[in-house]
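Project outcomes to date are best conveyed with an example. Our students and postdoctoral researchers have been running inverse folding experiments weekly, and each run begins with a structure described purely in tokens. The record below, which covers 564 residues, was selected by the lab manager from last quarter's runs and is presented without edits.
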């Protein structure tokens, strides 16, 4: 019988595998998987929390035990939608071992009644839960949402309409729709008509000031003509103001009476109602339709209630305009600098020093660029423009203060090193044979660069632009110094001449997130909006980058060669 020998199991970390680098391949793969998992987890969290803002949750009517700390006032009932479940931070040692130790955070609304909009309730204090069909959730212009049971409608000149009447909901919808139309008309009058008159009167005032300083012979006649024009505008202003006041008074002609589930009776003018719905009656298709409507409203409406309610359209528009202006400013300067360094400059100590400086500039904290933007663009360039062209308006600055133009140029300086480095790499990747073939055919050096090198390196240049756009669109710190504000009354681009108002301040999604997260007076109400705005900012950056990537791929296919 031949003896059999058992072989020892072969270890994975042998000299042979180590020399081939197989363990390190696995380690790098694990690092990649971990990084992808972290990114996907973060995006999933933002996506889920962001969409929770718009999803119409069911509203629970909880019956609480006597003396419960979660009760509001003397009532044992509290209505609210469940926002969060969590373990109680401190456990009651006198409670049974198997007692429920979770607590619920409820959005109860009615901030004007309770003094709070969110409430923590122990699960063990809830004796019963129901979901009444008649419960109404009302979105208001102020104090957030209200929750309660509708009692009826009071309309000026009409009989009282109880909530039990079949025509109640249709009548309330019509009143809310009419009130919304009046608000649009009020905003048109106050922002467009009255705003245009105010700007014209300000121009007249500046003209009169300029005439008085000029010392011309016919100053009195021209000033009298300006006064007459100003008086005519003042009459129009007063007429429009009366019309706006009349429309505002009509917003209070009808009101909704409702009762909270803690017993308080309230009356809400129809002009203060943004919308209403019955959350416990909605089926899945209705909830999806409601979700889509809320998202559209979020994207197109203006913010209100310290930015915790309403939409973010001014912030979207400001972010888009600033990013486009930054890209237009940074691309030519970055590309020209890279062409000089790569194609014209004699390689030596000075060029190496410039490249080192550019690379170091990419690591400078962004707030430093903000300080430079204030000092150079605002206090020096802007103040000089005011002295030359807007002297009559001084001491009120026009360009000598923060605005979308200075913010865009500041971020262009912040991102120009990225464009320079990416463009240099793209120029270096163009085969030498393409340059020599062009020169051999009689083309000059600039013709070779413009017609051969730049088109072939365009995909790489766009890669640098994509990186610059992604960083610039999400920066906040420098913008706080050079033009971004919590709420901008006017957009930087509109339908009034000269259409482009680059001296105006603007809103930005990144600053909007900062303001909600750290400056909001109601932190609980701001949390959902933080996630929703973060999701929107990520989406906007992705859309801008996808547009640039699409153009890059088109150029890459057009100028593809065997060397690429």
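After processing, the design step wrote out the following sequence:
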């Amino acid at each position: 019988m031949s003896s059999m020998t058992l072989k020892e199991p072969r270890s994975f970390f042998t000299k042979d595998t180590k020399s081939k680098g197989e363990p390190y391949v696995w380690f790098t793969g694990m690092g990649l998987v971990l990084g992808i998992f972290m990114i996907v987890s973060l995006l999933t969290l933002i996506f889920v929390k962001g969409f929770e803002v718009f999803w119409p949750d069911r509203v629970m009517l909880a019956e609480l035990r006597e003396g419960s700390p979660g009760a509001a006032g003397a009532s044992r009932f509290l209505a609210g939608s469940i926002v969060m479940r969590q373990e109680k931070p401190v456990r009651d040692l006198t409670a049974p071992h198997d007692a429920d130790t979770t607590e619920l955070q409820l959005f109860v609304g009615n901030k004007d009644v309770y003094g709070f909009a969110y409430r923590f309730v122990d699960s063990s204090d809830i004796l019963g839960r129901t979901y009444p069909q008649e419960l109404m959730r009302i979105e208001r212009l102020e104090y957030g949402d209200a929750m309660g049971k509708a009692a009826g409608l009071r309309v000026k000149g009409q009989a009282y309409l109880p909530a039990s009447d079949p025509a109640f909901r249709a009548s309330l919808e019509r009143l809310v729709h009419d009130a919304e139309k009046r608000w649009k008309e009020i905003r048109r009058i106050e922002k467009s008509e009255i705003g245009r008159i105010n700007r014209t009167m300000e121009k007249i005032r500046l003209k009169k000031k300029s005439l008085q300083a000029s010392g011309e012979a016919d100053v009195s006649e021209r000033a009298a003509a300006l006064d007459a024009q100003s008086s005519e505008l003042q009459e129009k202003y007063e007429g429009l103001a009366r019309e706006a006041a009349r429309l505002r008074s009509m917003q209070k002609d009808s009101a909704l009476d409702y009762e909270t589930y803690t017993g308080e009776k309230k009356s809400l003018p129809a002009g203060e109602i943004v919308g209403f719905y019955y959350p416990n009656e909605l089926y899945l298709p209705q909830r999806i339709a409601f979700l889509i409507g809320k998202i559209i409203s979020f994207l197109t409406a203006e913010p209100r209630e310290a930015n915790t309610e309403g939409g973010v359209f001014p912030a979207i528009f400001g972010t888009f305009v600033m990013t486009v202006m930054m890209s237009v400013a940074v691309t030519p300067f970055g590309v020209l600098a890279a062409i000089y360094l790569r194609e014209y400059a004699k390689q030596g100590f000075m060029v190496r020093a410039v490249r080192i400086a550019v690379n170091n500039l990419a690591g400078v904290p962004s707030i430093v660029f903000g300080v430079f933007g204030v000092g150079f663009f605002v206090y020096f360039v802007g103040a000089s423009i005011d002295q030359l062209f807007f002297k009559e308006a001084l001491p009120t600055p026009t360009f000598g203060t923060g605005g979308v133009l200075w913010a865009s140029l500041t971020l262009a300086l912040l991102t120009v090193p990225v464009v320079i480095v990416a463009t240099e790499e793209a120029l270096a990747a163009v085969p030498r044979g393409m340059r020599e073939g062009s020169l051999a055919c009689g083309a000059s050096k600039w013709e070779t660069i413009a017609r051969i090198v730049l088109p072939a390196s365009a995909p790489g240049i766009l890669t640098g632009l994509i990186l610059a756009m992604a960083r610039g669109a999400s920066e906040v710190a420098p913008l706080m110094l050079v033009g971004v504000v919590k709420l901008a009354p006017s957009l930087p681009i509109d339908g009034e001449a000269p259409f482009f108002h680059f001296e105006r301040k603007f809103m930005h999604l990144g600053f909007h997130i900062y303001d909600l997260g750290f400056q909001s007076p109601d932190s609980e109400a701001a949390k959902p909006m933080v996630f929703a705005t973060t999701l929107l900012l990520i989406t906007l950056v992705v859309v801008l980058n996808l547009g640039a990537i699409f153009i890059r791929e088109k150029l890459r296919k057009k100028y593809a060669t065997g060397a690429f």
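The chain has a mean pLDDT of 84. The chain has three domains: 60-150, 161-252, 314-558. The training component of this project remains on track.
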